[in-house]
Amino acid sequence: MKSILIVYVTKTGTTLHAARIISEVFESNGYSVEIKKIGDDIHIDDYFGIIIGAPINGMQWHPEAVSFITKNKQILKEKAVAYYFMSYILNVGNSFWNKRIQTSLNKVKNIVKPENIGMFNGSVGSDFPAVARWIFGIKKGTPMNLTDDSEVEAWAKDCVEVFDRI
Ligand SMILES: Cc1cc2nc3c(=O)[nH]c(=O)nc-3n(C[C@H](O)[C@H](O)[C@H](O)COP(=O)(O)O)c2cc1C
Q1: Residue to probe by mutation, ligand 1, list 9, 11, 89, 103, most atoms within 8 Å of CB
Q2: Can you give the chain as a three-state secondary structure string?
């Protein structure tokens, strides 16, 4: 049985929620899965594949995820690797910001090239200021929670197909 580690960092829980959905999809396709937080005791060599999930903060993929990949790049290059991220602004903000997010991801892709990347809609709290909506070009009335379990599930199924071929 192929084993997968999903390693994540989260501030408000949506990345962990996505990890659980991805885990269920992999398990229902015959993989064994463990979910661990960046900072836990992790032995990458124990797994066939590693999926790394983190939110976008300040238009950058969370720095703890980037550090994890940088620190483990040699061993990750020998594994099946996928990344996913949660972003509130990705699909509802001004395209200028999307380019900033893509630039941050391109830097990570150059450290260790993943087999697949999931880009998921995130959520913000009710304290999200109106001025931030204006800066990011988010239309009034856009829901605070844009997460969609079905988009995570669809990506995970695609990821299983990719990992099956390795
Ligand atoms: C401090 C902070 C900064 C954020 N910065 C961004 C950002 O620059 N771009 C973006 O698309 N979303 C941003 N978000 C939204 C979150 O990345 C996103 O909605 C995600 O669901 C949060 O993931 P988490 O629940 O795993 O922490 C930010 C959220 C917080 C709390």
Answers
A1: 11
A2: CCEEEEEECCCCCHHHHHHHHHHHHHHCCCCEEEEEEECECCCHHHCCEEEEEEEEECCEECHHHHHHHHHCHHHHCCCEEEEEEEECCCCCCCHHHHHHHHHHHHHHHHHCCCCEEEEEECECCCCCCHHHHHHHCCCCCCCCECCCHHHHHHHHHHHHHHHHCC
